[in-house]
């Protein structure tokens, strides 16, 4: 499959706390790539990414089952939100668990500037 997407960013800041989770082996580099992909496909906070698991699996070169494992793991760590609207699943990456409310507030302020 040819992966083409409209990304809503020009880069992603990865907080030191997330890098520490990789160094502590709480999350893998693939998990981080998943979070960055979801973040990039999210137009704005609160809107979420509606890419399906097959698309996400193809984009990362893994199986649909592996995507399900990544989603479960990241939700358990509170780094990913999953919600449903009218039968469609949406995902949203969040750094809130690791970085505290200061980053969440800053993210909201920055979103208001665009």
Describe the structure.
The protein is mainly α and 114 residues long. The chain has a single domain, classed as Winged helix-like DNA-binding domain superfamily/Winged helix DNA-binding domain (Arc Repressor Mutant, subunit A, Orthogonal Bundle), CATH 1.10.10.10. It is 52% helix and 11% strand. It has five helices and two strands. The protein has helices spanning 16-23, 29-40, 53-60, 64-76, 96-113, and strands at 80-85, 88-93. Strands 1-2 form a two-stranded antiparallel sheet. It is globular, with a radius of gyration of 14 Å. The termini are far apart. Mean pLDDT is 80; it is low at 96-110.
Secondary structure blueprint with pairings:
Elements (H helix, E strand, L loop, with lengths): L15 H8 L5 H12 L12 H8 L3 H13 L3 E6 L2 E6 L2 H18 L1
Antiparallel strand pairs: 1-2
Helix pairs in contact: 3-4
CATH fold type: Arc Repressor Mutant, subunit A
Domain tally: 1
**What ranges have pLDDT less than 50 throughout 5 or more consecutive residues?**
96-110
Q: Class in CATH?
A: Mainly Alpha
What characteristic shape results from the CA principal axes?
A: globular
Count of DSSP H/I helices? 5
Any guess at the CATH architecture? Orthogonal Bundle
The assembly state of the depicted protein chains is: single chain
Helical fraction equals 40-55%
H-E string:
HHHHEEH
Radius of gyration: 14 Å
């Amino acid at each position: 499959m040819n992966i083409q997407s409209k990304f809503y960013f020009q880069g992603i800041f990865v907080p030191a706390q997330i890098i520490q989770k990789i160094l502590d082996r709480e999350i893998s580099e693939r998990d981080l790539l998943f979070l960055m992909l979801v973040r990039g496909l999210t137009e704005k906070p609160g809107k979420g990414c509606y890419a399906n698991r097959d698309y996400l699996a193809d984009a990362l070169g893994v199986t649909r089952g592996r995507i399900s494992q990544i989603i479960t793991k990241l939700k358990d760590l509170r780094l990913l939100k999953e919600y449903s609207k009218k039968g469609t699943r949406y995902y949203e990456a969040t750094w809130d668990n690791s970085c505290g409310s200061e980053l969440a507030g800053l993210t909201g302020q920055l979103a208001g500037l665009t």
